[in-house]
Amino acid sequence: MGGPGRGGNDRLIGLGGDDWLFGDAWEISDEGRGGNDRLAGGKGNDTLYGDANTMSDLAQGGDDQLVGGEGNDTLYGDAEVMGPNTVGGDDHLVGGSGDDLLFGDGAQVSQFPLFGATGGNDHLEGGAGNDTLLGDADTSSGTSLGGDDWLEGGSGDDFLVGEGGLYPFGGIGGDDRLDGGAGNDALYGDDFAGLAESAQGGNDQLNGGAGNDILYGEGLFMYDHASAGDDRLDGGAGDDILVGDAESVGLAWGGTDLLIGGSGNDHLYGDEIDFSFSQGTADQFLFETHSGQDTIHFLELHVDIILIDSGYGYGSFAELQSNISDDPHGNAVIHLNGTVDQITLAGVQTANLTASDFLFV
């Protein structure tokens, strides 16, 4: 389908079997536009395309609704391959039961370094099963722009990525919301592999939910002159690991993040796990009542801020100071509620803490 043509608003139902459903055509090009379609896979291991297999040359996807149903399904909100200068629609994808793979836009976005694609603002729901949700695409290139997506893992051990696999060059991540739900989930605000060169992460909100989750504000790695977004990470219930930016930031710029461990025994890293050459900014660590026994790694004194909930009864550093002491390893331990709720500051001694490191909220 090409030219100024536009697909209709269609309804496709797969029923039984392993079905392939296309909302509009095999290929959309030359400013063609997909319709607003509704696709339901039904039983079986289905593959659903909201618009087409391939989009190119200013093509634009429609605002589609895809439901995988039973089985291990693969859903593309727009197309498997989105070429340069294409625009994804605002799609709603529901995996259903089974271990599903959901792409908000496509598996591969743009193949040219100077002309990127634009992702839609999509809503992805994994449902039951161990699902993989990518807000935009598995592989992005050029100056691709991610959409502002909402990903919900549902039950099961899910893998959620706000954008996709890797953002190189001047790609810009969207401002995404990721909710892991029940299960032991892995959440990445922007890209699993990370941000490279001058790519920019979005300002994302990550909530692990119940279970032992791992949350990264951006992704595993950041390279060169990439910039992290200002993210909010909430581990929820369980023993979680929260990383404000990436496992390794290198010479890239970290964001100004807010980390909330939630209940359970959590480990919080404001910028990165491998703290070496990062150019981090001020991060905030919020500890609400019943926060458990948590550990902050690589706290930057007089830069990062520890937020203490008023429910613990402290209104100033002077009131809290008598409940801070070093453990046998020389790490400061803040006893918020005796030995029930406490914060260990790895590598920080009590004598080096001042009122500027705390805020009581």
Automatic annotation (TrEMBL):
Domain of life: Bacteria
Keyword Hydrolase recorded: no
GO-annotated cellular components: extracellular region
Primary localisation category: secreted
Region (Disordered): 126-148
Keywords (A to Z) from UniProt: Secreted
Single GO molecular function: calcium ion binding
Subcellular location: Secreted
Coiled-coil boundaries: none
Protein name per UniProt: Calcium-binding protein
Record organism: Rhizobium fredii
